[in-house]
Design a protein that fits this description.
mainly alpha; 67% helix; 7 helices; 7% strand
Amino acid sequence: MGKRELREKKKALREEKRNTRKRHMEYKVANFVSHRVPPGFDWEKELAWMRVALICAVVFGSFLFLIRLGVSISNLYEQKWEPAVNGGYVSTGIGLKEGAVMREVSAVLEWTRVGFALTGVLLVMMVVSHYRYYRQGSMSIYLMKRLPDGREYHRRNFNLVLILAAVSLAVMVLMSLTHYGMYLLFTPKGCLPSGHGLNFWLWMIGGGL
């Protein structure tokens, strides 16, 4: 067997291992989720919608934040002038305004989380869809209500939604922390407002969008 054939064989083996791991992971995910939704429910469509909603929420929030950040930073600068030798004034370029202070972080972050409020609406719609599913077709709601554990019916309707709500919350917090880090990083030295950290956490805890 030549070196080329040997390399191709090793490559094929690695690819097969990757595919095997991927199939195994997909099976584990499918098994995990299928026990947390109504039996036979098309949960993959819900996950796809949630993924799109989270991406849109992050893109919109980040776009709005970057625009506000850029405008706020540009407002710290002004055209500098100094007297010319022959009279009048000559420009010395762009510089920080005297006593320039950056806009409060809560104002820069305002409305950046509005997309996540819409994902909350989507989660409510998922719960309604789960409950309605039991009353369609074979009316499996009667079968669920005859189960020994009466709470299983409600768990099947809420479990996946609660998991997705936790994921959405984690993504929202991570996005806001990232934005705050960028606020600190790009604000010129000496221009941060006093108490900016407290202002940020009050905005986070206070439910600011």
